[in-house]
Amino acid sequence: MENLDVTVLRALRDWRAAGKRALMATVVRTWGSSPRPIGSIMGLAENGAVVGSVSGGCIEDDLIARYTQAAAADALKATANGAPQFVKYGVTADEAHRFGLPCGGTLELLLEFDPDAGVLSNLVTALEAGQLTHRRVDLSDSTVTLEVAQAPAELSVSNTRLVNTFGPEYRMLLIGAGQLGEYLATMALFCGFAVTVCDPREEYRGAWSVAGARVLSTMPDDTVIDFKPDRRSCIIALTHDPKLDDLALLEALKSEAFYIGAIGSRRNNEARRQRMIDHLEQTEESLKQLRGPVGIFIGSKTPPEIAVSIMSEVLAVKNGVTLPRDMDVAHVKNTQNIEASQADDELVCFTR
């Protein structure tokens, strides 16, 4: 599953290139609880096709009724060549209930009618090439300009202009194509990450069964270099084999990746850190960004549960959420005096 913004923009581009009328809705303000965050976008075609979302479904139904049903067809025609419009939902308690908004929630959308197919195409091309991009909308005449962005930014809106920043897909690089990697890759794909899996071992790589993930046979450290990790990248070592994991993690630590981690028990993670200090010229300071044991403490034992644990931590870090210490695997196990057994240390994919 690809990045949702790219999916919406690509659908809008295709509809407009085919000569269809379409509407682009952007969440620009929220008050109280909101089903979708500011900056979320949705595309609506004249035949009622919807891509993306701005709520749990009821607001989408209202927009469809306004702009695609036969009785409302003239409304879309009348606004197609006009300036963008603001619309609020959930202003009153009755409206909040009608549109399925949480108690006290209010949502404001900007509606753009028949966005330019050429500009949409240029934006999609930039995002597919990995370019962070500002999309600026002049609210007086709906003129849209694109600008290369150097850093992510929150949506900004005024009476005259909207600026929404679209970034390339978040990317996940997994070192190791074992069973745990398949579960983790599946979850990452559903969360909108582009997933690359690297494993030079044919016996693991040959059994890979997750569609949508790119699978490579190159050595992990070379793969990390070629991957060019940025601030929207995470790298997780899953092989439990120092020959594959350590050098790859060393290269990852030179990058801006927002999450770098490795599977393994507390004992194995401590051994890894010591190896990297003793033999790879690392220090405690240089290893600060290396996470391990990875994941949050949910008592996970099986590969799918461990994948949930790891994906949860990745998403928390991505979203800037500080997790409490009682969710840290090593801290909880140390506090509860949970000892890692020899069997735990020998498992390739199932330990943390």
Could you explain the architecture of this structure?
Mean pLDDT is 86; it is low at 340-352. Helices cover 36% and strands 21% of the residues. It has a six-stranded parallel beta sheet, sandwiched between helices. A five-stranded antiparallel beta sheet has the order 3-2-1-5-4. The protein folds into two domains: 4-126, no CATH class; 171-346, Rossmann fold. The protein contains 13 helices and 15 strands. The radius of gyration is 23 Å and the shape is elongated. With 352 residues, it is α/β, with parallel strands linked by helices. This is Xanthine dehydrogenase accessory factor. Residues 172-314 form the XdhC Rossmann domain. InterPro entries: MoCofactor_Util/Proc (IPR052698), XdhC_CoxI (IPR003777), XdhC_Rossmann_dom (IPR027051).
Tell me briefly what this model is.
By secondary structure, the chain is an alpha/beta fold.
Q: Helical stretch count?
A: 13
Distance between the termini: 27 Å
Number of domains: 2
DSSP strand content:
15-25%
Determine the fraction of residues in helical runs and give it as a percent range.
25-40%
CATH H-level superfamily title of the largest domain: NAD(P)-binding Rossmann-like Domain
Would you identify the CATH architecture of the largest domain? 3-Layer(aba) Sandwich
Main sheet strand line-up: 12-11-10-13-14-15
Using the coordinates above, name the CATH class of the largest domain. Answer: Alpha Beta
Structural class: alpha/beta
Count of DSSP strands: 15
Determine Rg (CA atoms, Å): 23 Å
Order of helices and strands: HEEEHHEHEHEEEEEHEHEHEHEHEHHH
Low-confidence stretches at least 5 residues in length (pLDDT < 50)?
340-352
Mean residue pLDDT: 86
The largest sheet, given as strand count, sense and whether it forms a barrel, is: 6 strands, parallel
Protein name: Xanthine dehydrogenase accessory factor
InterPro entries: MoCofactor_Util/Proc, XdhC_CoxI, XdhC_Rossmann_dom
Domain XdhC- CoxI: 15-74
Pfam family, one: XdhC_CoxI
